[in-house]
Design brief:
By secondary structure, the chain is mainly alpha-helical. The protein contains eight helices and two strands, in the order ααααααααββ. It has a two-stranded antiparallel ribbon. A hairpin with a 6-residue loop joins strand 1 and strand 2. The longest helix is centred in the middle third of the chain and has 20 residues. It is elongated.
C-alpha cells in the first residue's frame, strides 16, 4: 500500500495543527474555491491553532471543543461560532475516518442558531446625503466606502481588486 502524508501523520500521533494543515492542503484544497481555502486557513491560524494547535489531536476532547465554541457565543459571535463548529467537525470526522482518533469529539457539538441581520436600503435622499458627507470628509478611505456602497463588494474581495491600465475599470479575482 502506498504511504501518503495522511498515513504518515497517523504514525506520528500528530498535533492538531499538523493534522489540520494536512487535511486542509490534501483533502480540501483541490476541491474548494481559493477564497474558501484562504478563509479556512485564516480561521485555523487566527482562532483554532492558538487554542489547540500544539495539542495532540487524540487528546482534544468534546468539552474542550464545546468550551471553545461557547466562547464565541458568549461574545455574541454566533456566526463565527457556527463556522468554527463546522470546521472542527470536518477535521475531526476526517481524523476518525483515518483511525487517528477513535471517534470525533466534535460530532456532538451543539448547533449554533443565529439570525442573519438584514439591512434596509437607503432612500434616494439618504444616499445623496451619505455620498455628499463622505466625499466632503477627510477620511482617507472615503472612496473605498463609496466602492462598497455602489458595488456590494465584500471586505475580503476588496483586497483582491485589480485595476486596468487606464484605472477606469476594476476586477475582483476569486
Amino acid at each position: 500500500k502506498k504511504e501518503n502524508a495522511l498515513f504518515r501523520a497517523k504514525a506520528k500521533k500528530p498535533t492538531f495543527a499538523d493534522f489540520a494543515q494536512t487535511w486542509l492542503d490534501v483533502e480540501k484544497k483541490p476541491y474548494i474555491k481559493e477564497i474558501t481555502y484562504y478563509n479556512y486557513r485564516d480561521d485555523l491560524e487566527k482562532r483554532i491553532f492558538p487554542r489547540f494547535g500544539d495539542v495532540a489531536i487524540d487528546e482534544v476532547t468534546y468539552v474542550d471543543l464545546q468550551d471553545f465554541v461557547n466562547g464565541f457565543v458568549r461574545d455574541g459571535k454566533n456566526r463565527t461560532a457556527k463556522k468554527m463548529r463546522n470546521l472542527l467537525q470536518q477535521i475531526f470526522e476526517s481524523a476518525a475516518e483515518q483511525g487517528i482518533v477513535d471517534r470525533s469529539p466534535a460530532a456532538r457539538l451543539k448547533d449554533i442558531i443565529y439570525e442573519a441581520k438584514s439591512g434596509k436600503a437607503f432612500s434616494l435622499e439618504e444616499e445623496r446625503s451619505f455620498v455628499t458627507r463622505t466625499l466632503e470628509s477627510s477620511l482617507p478611505c472615503k472612496y473605498a466606502i463609496l466602492l462598497f456602497l455602489y458595488t456590494g463588494i465584500r471586505r475580503d474581495e476588496f483586497k483582491r481588486i485589480k485595476f486596468d491600465e487606464d484605472r477606469k475599470w476594476i476586477t475582483v479575482q476569486n
